[in-house]
Amino acid sequence: xxxxxxxxxxxxxxxxxxxxxxxxxxxxxxxxxxxxxxxxxxxxxxxxxxxxxxxxxxxxxxxxxxxxxxxxxxxxxxxxxxxxxxxxxxxxxxxxxxxxxxxxxxxxxxxxxxxxxxxxxxxxxxxxxxxxxxxxxxxxxxxxxxxxxxxxxxxxxxxxxxxxxxxxxxxxxxxxxxxxxxxxxxxxxxxxxxxxxxxxxxxxxxxxxxxxxxxxxxxxxxxxxxxxxxxxxxxxxxx
Length: 239
Description:
It is a single chain. By secondary structure, this protein is of the alpha/beta class. It has one domain (7-238): 3-Layer(aba) Sandwich (Rossmann fold). Helix content is 38%, strand content 27%. The protein is built from nine helices and ten strands. The protein has helices spanning 47-55, 74-80, 96-107, 111-120, 136-149, 166-181, 193-199, 217-224, 231-238; strands at 7-18, 21-32, 36-40, 62-67, 70-71, 81-84, 154-158, 185-190, 202-207, 210-215. The strands form two sheets. Strands 6-7-8-3-9-10 form a six-stranded mixed sheet, sandwiched between helices. A four-stranded antiparallel sheet has the order 2-1-4-5, covered by helices on one side. A hairpin with a 2-residue loop joins strand 1 (7-18) and strand 2 (21-32). Helix 3 (96-107) runs parallel beside helix 5 (136-149) and helix 8 (217-224) runs parallel beside helix 9 (231-238). The longest helix has 16 residues, at 166-181. The radius of gyration is 18 Å and the shape is globular. 38% of the residues are buried.
């Protein structure tokens, strides 16, 4: 792959295996500045492994991550990207307000920005509660608040809509679109295809650790040899 002016990151031939199990095989794609890129695939397709590999949380067997055409070392990735995993509950014994204040100080975010994020995500009722006491939906919004307070150019979110009802999800989609419009780049792993279509500019289709295709929905329809239909129809055609 050769870099273009719009590319923020290039992912080149990433592979990862666990013993005889090939979790990822020669996965390559680009991430463009300020886009919302969706990582799509069924459970077990390698989505989380791919995100962890890009973020430098697990060692890869092969492949490189390039930033504007230059190899981005693992120690330097935390300066360029913030990765929010799925299914975590950081600082579970502390009140939500205290944790958000800590992350605001950590990222050098002013109080008015923190208050805006709290209001956007409707977290006011939770501020005095311990993190471990939050419902699944509130925990998801609490985690999203932490991510939105971060300042790295690339925001990587694993299943950002899990646990949210339709109204909450649509609100979060609007917030993430605003985040992109203000100059940040988003890479989202999304299980529900309808949700991905609502927010993403382009898509990466992953199955069995292999890249099936990437591009806009129109480009993926062309690759799949169909003239209409959504991501579900495209995915079924390609598999």
